[in-house]
Amino acid sequence: MFLRRSVTLAMSLKNYSSEAKNLVAVAVNNQTGVATVTLQRPPVNSLNLELLNELSSALTELEEKKARGIILKSSSDSVFSAGLDIHEFSNTEEGRLKKFWTALQDVWIKLYGHSAPTVACINGHAPAGGCLLALSCEYRVMLKQKTIGLNETKLGIVAPLWFIASMENVIGRRLTELSLTTGKMYTTEEALKIGLIDEIAEDTNDAVSKSENFLKLFQNISPFARSQTKKFIRGNTVQSLVKTREADLKAFIDDITSEKVQKGLKVYMESLKKGK
Ligand SMILES: CCCCC/C=C\C/C=C\C/C=C/C(=O)SCCNC(=O)CCNC(=O)[C@H](O)C(C)(C)COP(=O)(O)OP(=O)(O)OC[C@H]1O[C@@H](n2cnc3c(N)ncnc32)[C@H](O)[C@@H]1OP(=O)(O)O
What is the atom index within ligand 1 of the atom nearest the CA of 255? Predict the structure, then answer.
């Protein structure tokens, strides 16, 4: 039985970050074992090192505690996540850049390969890294009138192979190529048409309820059989990054610290501010 009452377990009270902030909240329903993981870094949930570290720790803990399902959502009804925090890119101090990219790799490996069934409750816009988080889940419910996509080329940057694989595994190679090369952001309605999302929701409550309904499909399925099947299907994709992490990190550092990319990012950030 899925009860609406959510019980906040000890782990949800934990402050995962070294900052005195909770950027990720975890609430586990003790009737169902389903965890709701809420990103809460206003205004746009951009993914900085601290948020990624918290998310990574939360995913590890939910793996260890054998969560029966994970719903990933935003605390805002406007933006699911604006993707990677562009300020992390302009801080070209190599130590932090390395930690930042390594934390992103960790989050993706843990989320993409999580034993629990995962749903992205996309209750807001989801560009770039926000779209990556959504694509890493097994099912996507999205609010109407929002946008989603891997728009990296619009910033003058190249989406890494594992970003591309995450999309390709959902919508296929042809559409992934078109989407990434043009940096296309899809509306919710367009995203449904191409299978980038699975369902449209009216509002966040509706999205959470649809996410819970998806997880109910697994009530009578053996968790072992389910997670092993997921592992067989996703294992190669995960392993392709696990085996190349160092090279991927080097490619990121080389690319992002290049003068050309830095200039482009500056222009992009200014255009975001002017867009107001
Ligand atoms: C060759 C080998 C390959 C090697 C690999 C190399 C490189 C790849 C590296 C990385 C891949 C990159 C992934 C990313 O995720 S990059 C981030 C891309 N994100 C975006 O483009 C989103 C930009 N934001 C928006 O479109 C909008 O903000 C929004 C999300 C639609 C929300 O709109 P809204 O109107 O609600 O808010 P504002 O636009 O007013 O924004 C409020 C506030 O937030 C700031 N902000 C927005 N997005 C970001 C961000 N991603 N990072 C940091 N800050 C962000 C915005 O500037 C405003 O700030 P202000 O101070 O003006 O209030």
Answer: 6
pLDDT recorded at residue 94: 79
For residue 276, the ligand 1 atom closest to its alpha carbon is: 40
pLDDT at residue 154, rounded to an integer: 94
Residues with CB under 6 A from ligand 1: 43-44, 46, 78-79, 82-87, 125, 127-129, 151-152, 155, 157-160, 251-252, 255-256, 272-273, 276
> 131-147: per-residue pLDDT in tens?
999 999 999 999 999 99
Q: Is residue 177 annotated as a catalytic residue, yes or no?
A: no
CA dist., res. 100 & res. 84, Å (int): 10
- Answer whether residue 272 shows pLDDT above 90: no
Helix (H) or strand (E) holding 140: strand 139-143
Question: Which CATH number do you get for residue 230?
Answer: 3.90.226.10
Q: What range does the domain containing 109 cover?
A: 10-274
Distance 47 CA to ligand 1 centre (A): 9
Give the torsion sign (CA, 182, 176, 189, 211).
negative
Asked, for residue 4, whether it belongs to a domain, the answer is no
Q: How confident is the model at residue 192 (pLDDT cuts 50, 70, 90)?
A: very high
pLDDT of residue 21: 67
Answer for the pair 82, 46: CB distance below 8 angstroms, yes or no: yes
Q: Each residue of 55-67: pLDDT tens digit?
A: 999 999 999 999 9
Q: Residue 74 CB: number of other CB atoms within 10 A?
A: 27
Q: Kindly state whether residue 252 falls inside one of the protein's structural domains.
A: yes
Q: 47, 202, 174, 182: which is closest to 111 by C-alpha?
A: 47
- Percentage above 70 pLDDT, the chain: 91
Atom 30 of ligand 1, residue of closest alpha carbon: 82
The atom number, within ligand 1, closest to the CA of 81 reads 30
Does 226 reside within a domain? Answer: yes
CA-closest residue to ligand 1 atom 4: 252
Q: How many domains is the chain built from?
A: 1
Q: Please check whether residue 130 lies inside any domain of the structure.
A: yes
